[in-house]
Amino acid sequence: MKSAVRGIAGLACAGSLVLVAAGCGGGSAKDAKGGTGAKADGKEQSAAVGVVSRAQAAKLIDRYEKVNNRANKNSDPKLLSTVEGGAVFQQSKATFKMQKNWTAKRRAEYREPFTYVDRKYYIPRKGTADWFAMVAYSQGPDGKKGKFPGILVMEKQKGGGWKMVTATYSETKKLPRLAKDKDGFAVPVTNTAKKAGALAPDSLSDSLLDLYTEQVTPEGGFRPSKTTKWISKIPKTQNKLLNPHGAAEFSRGESTHESVYALRTRNGGSLAVFSTEVREHDRGTQLTATIHPSDKMKVYVGETSGAPAFFVDWLHISSAYIRPQGRPHLLGSEYEMTGAAAATDADGNMPGADS
């Protein structure tokens, strides 16, 4: 994972996005020392431990930095897969694919090494989660630190190792204060289908999709923000480009890489990082109309001259603050094209689909 400008679908382009916000630290002092406490006179029980200690978290992030930088330098998804998984790896793989369209200068800038500085770890108590979060700034080889921090989540894999699985950015530096338990551990939302504030974290993906389908009501969805504003412009921009002989429709894509991670806030809400799959359907509205794929789409569909319709898949990774009452705040989002395919017939049927 590395911060990069994300563009919109085959025929349009969107603005750049920024990184996330700072908050309170995670884990207890006992946890920082390694996660276990010594027994006094053989009577005291072991101290509370986190899913990892701070020292362990630091080592995991150090390794991630090192391998990520090597993978970015060589655009090597196989190497990156040893430390990345989930939605963020899908975005990274897509970014590597898109680099064939980049200028030499942009590729060189992306391949410059970086480190995470001013790290703050948010470590849940062992047994309450199999992941931990970090808030940190990205710093380049010139020593210049990013203006906005990022929120990253590292998760334990079935095989026992750890991988970075999601990362997101924010339009604001100000995050809600996160809750801690009696031992100083971050408190995860263990049931993301249940309300943790005014909304269940699992509902955030639907709210983001509503920005594409223009089904947001005054009472529902996200409160207005910079992020909701630019996402809402995407379908309008795409349809304007296709007008008058074509149209774009947006719906939910395959949920393969959708996930949500949430921590409780002190005021009864929650802070969540979540991913959303969005499918774009570009089609001609006249029998003689032909959709011509962009250079980005050609990465997936090849050098085709056009087709009556195309499907384009996008993967968003976003962060949101679910308030105790009222509409949630979409803090930030970034997205990447993860696939494209020409329709199988003039009716715009998707490859491999019955309808």
From TrEMBL:
Matches recorded under PROSITE patterns: PROKAR_LIPOPROTEIN
UniProt keyword list: Signal
Signal peptide extent: 1-21
UniProt name for this protein: DUF8094 domain-containing protein
InterPro entries per the UniProt record, alphabetical: DUF8094 (IPR058407)
Residue ranges of domain DUF8094 in the record: 48-341
Organism name: Streptomyces spirodelae
Keyword Signal: yes
